[in-house]
């Protein structure tokens, strides 16, 4: 509307002034919210970095490659916990990936339409169960099963690999990985399913017209097309597994050592913080735990950003492909 | 038996179909197993006293001694306080960010930056959020480090991205024609946003709030560091109170049988709560998506 608009009603000048202030205040309020979201993200890094300065100054980069955590000797190394975190997450993914992709394939390619959404939403309920409930269930139900039933079988069949040696206690890296795998399934399944749903009908029809069987359609047309989304889902699942605390703390056995087999007790970065927070023995232990939290934060942020980036690229590619 | 190549391919394909069907069943087993265990073991301690009384002294039954499994009254109270306080700041901030991103950011880069920030924030491990609030309060307000308030600050960090992203999705489902119609009637921009767009998107926004509450209700890791549980009645929000999620952790790490039973009861309450909230919010989301799908 230009200033000299002859059609403007006489009263509109006053009205416009009032509403302009309303708009400004409203814009400012919502901008505060937007700034809050970004601000918290920045503050997370700054505050944790600031809190861990004493240990960063004292140990520097040694924190990243020291293999022991001994508060009495002022030796703090993240290595055992970084290995514990990566190992449990990797095994969890190894179990969860085939299950999730299989479930996504069944839901998108084989299940009747009326069954698809209800079942997919029930799978999502796995993500709603609190992690401390997973941990509690894992401790009371899963640990005895692993100890008396699963571990002996694994030791017999796969003992030669060296990965399954040691006493069968049940509170170990393997049990933690199994619980983590259950918790990552809903994430991977949901995103894989969405990306498989987005495969254009023409792709599948082309494969069918060449005489492909159902599986060949999935293998040659659906999975290659949905690959970006599946990978993003796996990376997001990894992000969830890396930072999981309560479920892992309750079943991993909590030993500050580098695990030597899947039956070893271990510790992840998250479970280290949960366990040692109230057992601080020296003034430097708190900064050390804060640096561990910062380390975990940076890893999970990186993993999440990579996942979002893959997903965004995948969606952008899909939008181009659809045109 | 020998098959020709085409039959082999077909058989293999059918085999894979069965296999993928089996993975669905396999994936769902833990869900029903957890629900089953908590229902059986949790329901056995449910009684009126379980919901009203405070946590009893730890004890394991032996001849001549019966142990009380009542109850989680103070834990329920603590969880309610935690969730209310967390929602009190996380919902306005998250909703503000969502309105800013959709109504003012629109398709511009700033909108994408904010949603991206919320997405990344939702990937921050809850224990890191707890450490963050601890490190912040120990410097600026040490008196409140161990309190319901500090716990609710950490839970809010977890709720915020969920509220923001769900509200954003809900606001984006309202077709542009609705905004244009309102603005064409001479309604100011903020009134359009609040009285028309927000009202229309309200089911989706409330869904986000419910989902975030469901998520925060079960969080135990940040509470372990901040509002780290108490056996006393919950008196005020600047002191430490018990919570349902930490009651489970307490039972899991305790040798006392009555605490383990109480933990199952607490687990059942939480499972019913989070599954109920998730199912309700999913139904609401499905309905709103259909409704605006027809208009747009």
Largest chain interface and its two residue counts? A-B, 92 and 98 residues
Model regions low in confidence, pLDDT < 50 over at least 5 residues of chain A:
none
Query: Largest sheet of chain B, if any?
Result: none
**What is the CATH architecture descriptor of chain B?**
Orthogonal Bundle
Structural class of chain A: mainly alpha
What percentage of the residues of chain B does DSSP assign to strands (E)?
under 5%
Quick summary:
The complex is a heterodimer of chains A (323) and B (296). Chain A is built from twelve helices and two strands, in the order αααββααααααααα. Chain A is mainly α.
Keywords:
heterodimer, A: 323 residues, mainly alpha, MetI-like fold, two-stranded antiparallel ribbon, 2 strands, globular, B: 296 residues, 12 helices
What does this structure look like?
- The complex is a heterodimer of chains A (323) and B (296).
- Chain A has 323 residues and is mainly α.
- Chain A has two domains: 12-51; 64-322, MetI-like (MetI-like fold), CATH 1.10.3720.
- Chain A is built from twelve helices and two strands.
- Chain A has helices at residues 12-51, 53-59, 62-65, 79-110, 113-128, 131-158, 173-197, 201-209, 214-243, 246-251, 269-276, 285-322, and strands spanning 69-70, 75-76.
- A two-stranded antiparallel ribbon of chain A has the order 1-2.
- In chain A, strand 1 and strand 2 (75-76) form a beta hairpin.
- In chain A, helix 2 (53-59) packs across helix 12 (285-322), helix 4 (79-110) packs antiparallel against helix 9 (214-243) and helix 11 runs antiparallel to helix 12.
- Chain A is globular and about 70 Å long.
- The two termini of chain A are 37 Å apart.
- Chain B has 296 residues and is mainly alpha-helical.
- Chain B has a single domain, classed as MetI-like fold, CATH 1.10.3720.10.
- In chain B, helix 1 (5-43) crosses helix 12, helix 5 crosses helix 6 (148-173) and helix 6 (148-173) runs antiparallel to helix 9.
- The model of chain B has no long low-confidence stretch (mean pLDDT 90).
- At the A-B interface, helix 1, helix 4, helix 5, helix 6 and helix 7 of A face helix 1, helix 3, helix 4, helix 5 and helix 6 of B.
